[in-house]
Amino acid sequence: MVWENALKRILIHLGLLIAAFIIQNSVFPLIPFLSATPNLLLILTFSFGFMEGQRSGMVYGLLAGILLDLFYSGPFGFYTLFYIYVGYVNGICTKYYYEDYITLPLILSILNELAYNMYIYVFRFLIRGRLDLLYYFRELMIPEIIFTAVTTLLIYRLLLFINRWLKEIESRRDTTIV
Amino acid sequence: MDSKYNRYLLMGLTLFCVVLIGITSVSDGWLAPLRTGVGYLLIPIQSGVNRAGAAIYEELSDFSRLKTALEENDRLKEEVDALVEENNRLLAEQYELRRLRELYQLDQEYMQYEKTAARVIANDSGDWFQVFRVDKGSADGVEVGCNVMAGGGLVGIVTDVGAHYATVRSIIDDSSRVSAMAVQSGDTCIVAGDLTLYEEGRLRITNIQKDADFKDGDRVVTSNISSKFLPGILIGYASDITLDSNQLTSSGYLIPAAEFGSLQEVLIITGVKETGDAGE
Q1: B22 to chain A nearest CA, in Å?
Q2: Domain chopping of chain A, boundaries
Q3: Residues of chain B found within 8 Å of residue A70, distances taken between Cβ atoms
Q4: Helix (H) or strand (E) holding A163
Q5: What is the pLDDT of residues B198-214, one digit of tens each?
Q6: Per-position DSSP letters for A76-139, written without gaps between them
Q7: Residue A163 contacts by C-beta under 8 Å, 6 or more apart in sequence?
Q8: Which residues contact residue A117 at a Cβ distance below 8 angstroms, ignoring those fewer than 6 apart?
Q9: Hey, of B60, B125, B177, B195, which one would you mutate to test binding to chain A, going by the most A CBs within 10 A of its CB?
Q10: Quick one: which of A31, B42, B192, B278 has the fewest CB in 10 Å?
């Protein structure tokens, strides 16, 4: 029974990740007025890291990163490395976590997004001598940060709900066993 | 105790990633089966979602398009007339060309490439890279290094291929370099993608020899000496060519022939340029 539960939870989380990935890559580009794409995988990773702690965050980051790395050519592990750290670092903030508290997740979303973009800039652009950080900041980072923050506002509650629901399933099963 | 365990886990995973990055920077061929495997699962979902989304979007925009369609129809009729005339002239020239070619025994034919149509099913997340994925793969004869076209112009090159998908790096990507030449003069240059020019819809042209015959509005095509791109594919039109400060080379901008904003269908040339060495 416990195994069955764990498997169910893993499958639901995996389904969430894949859904986020596909929406991000295949649906958002079809929407013409969306000038930047919100980073759903990042939102998922930091949200669950924040809600569930470092270890869950790391596992989530690992899966999200592997998904991205598998999909795009380039050195494998580039995204995975970053997403693992997102999960871990946001997991530290889990002690300040309580439900219905949206300010901290919002701040975290902005910081994470900034870190993510800087990571790409430094390792993929600065390394090739592209020094115009201000341009990239203005044209790429700011729009993406804003879109991601707005999306966080919209879906954070949904993620909270899913998390609570998953926990409920588990506790219900636990009591029936006892 | 728990946080200590987490820290070890983090260190382990970091090491794992760094080693992987190191190995795959050198060669990532061994990952292909894994990527193809994941592709089997994800590609059907992606192309399904994409097709449904595109259908809905097209339905919505059909009405607004109908209004402009009539207007466009008139304009196109005029254009057809002009083109028919031009075509007649070109045909005549074509015969002449063939005759002259036979005379010179020149067997190099341009633009006679086998192509396969593919649909764009996913874009890269974020705006940092201009990389996209199409729904044709090695099963359809696509291989790494295949050139990709749309709207009569070069779009990009296949960088990664699975059984039923291929990843394409477009020429507007910041790391893209294409060896090109002006049609009229045959003078070579490099067409480079640049993220800072992406918004304006332009690319950069560099490495034009100082005394080369390169004017604004010249047609720029892939060059004969490129090791990755087949020769004679239209890339775009040169603009704002100026002499560099080193007084040795000129550079400028290129307006691409392909429309990158609304890329949905592309043509993949199933044939890779065979050359001895790698590099530009």
Answers
A1: 8
A2: 2-19+37-173
A3: 31, 34-35, 38
A4: helix A142-177
A5: 878 889 998 888 888 88
A6: TTHHHHHHHHHHHHHHHGGGG--TT--HHHHHHHHHHHHHHHHHHIIIIIGGGT---HHHHIII
A7: A48, A51, A52
A8: A136, A140, A141, A144, A145, B126, B128
A9: B125
A10: B278
- Residue B199: its chain A contacts at CB < 8 A? 139
Residue B195 is which amino acid? L
CATH of A2-19+37-173, one of 1.10.1760, 1.20.1530, 2.30.29, 1.10.150: 1.10.1760
- Residue listed under structure tokens 């028919």: B84
CB contact under 8 A, B14 and A81: yes
Contacts for A70 with CB less than 8 Å, ≥ 6 apart? A76, B31, B34, B35, B38
Token pair of A117 as six digits:
């973009």
Give CA–CA dist B195/B211, Å, rounded: 29
pLDDT tens digits, one per residue of B121-176: 888 777 788 888 898 888 888 988 899 988 778 999 998 888 888 999 999 888 88
Residue A86, token pair as written in the block: 């997102």
The closest CB to that of B34, out of A70, A121, A130, belongs to A70
Determine the residue type at B19: V
